Amino acid sequence: MILAIDCGNSRLKWGLRTGGLHTEGASSDAWLAQGIVEYVDIASLVDLLRAQPRAQRAVVANVAGEKIMALVRDTLALLEIPAMWVQSQVEQCGVKNFYETPTQLGADRWAALIGARQQHSAACLVVCCGTATTMDVLDADGNFQGGLILPGVDLMLQALAHNTAQLPYADGKFTGLPRNTADAIVSGCLHAQVGAVERMYAQVADLPEALCIVSGGGADKIFDLLRMPKRHIASLVLIGLVQIGQ
Fold this sequence. Notes:
Number of strands: 12
Strand order of the largest sheet: 6-7-10-9-8-11-12
CATH architecture: 2-Layer Sandwich
Radius of gyration: 19 Å
Strand content: 25-35%
C-alpha cells in the first residue's frame, strides 16, 4: 500500500493506493482514500492519515518549499511511514527527461509525465491546471521534449484585479462575444489558457493516437473548451507517484 502526497503551490493532495498500476489506462477504483488539505490546515494531516490504514511507504512530490517539506516529513515520521521524496531524473519509469538540467524540472511535472505515460503509451500533451498551468510534450517513445509554464486562470484574474485601476476580480462566465466586463475578463483568461493548449498540442496533433491529457484542480474550467482528442485524469500526479513508488 502506497501513500502518494503532492505538495503543490497552494494545497496538498494525497491518495492511498492499494493494488497496482500495471496496465495502461488503469482506472482510479484502486484508490482506497483521497483528500485535499489546505496549507492553513496542514496540522490536520496527522489525524487524517492516522484514520486510514497504515501505508507501507509514502512517495512525495513537493514544490511548496522547505517549510511544508518539514511539516510533511515530521507528520510521516510521527506515523512511522518511510518516505521517498521525488526528484526529477534523467530517466525513470519509461520516461526520459530532455530538460537542459533534468533536476530543475518540478517534481510534480515529472510525476505527471510518468502518470501520463502509464495511462497512455502514444504521444500526448500533459496539461496540469493549478495555481500555474503547465503544458508538457511527451512523445510516443516516452521522451519529455519540453513544455510551458504560465499563470493559471485564477492568477490571471488576480493579476488584472491587482494591477489595473478599474478592473475587478471578475466572477463572470465564458462567452464567445462578451458584453459585460466580468464576462470579458473571464473569457479572456480562458481563451488565453485554451489557446496556449491548442498551440502546444499542434506539435503532436499529427502523431498516431495523440491525446491531450488534462489534470489538476482547474481542469474543469478549460476541458470542455478544448477542441482536440482529450482525456481528463483527476489524479495524474498521484498516479505518477504511485508508479514511482512501485
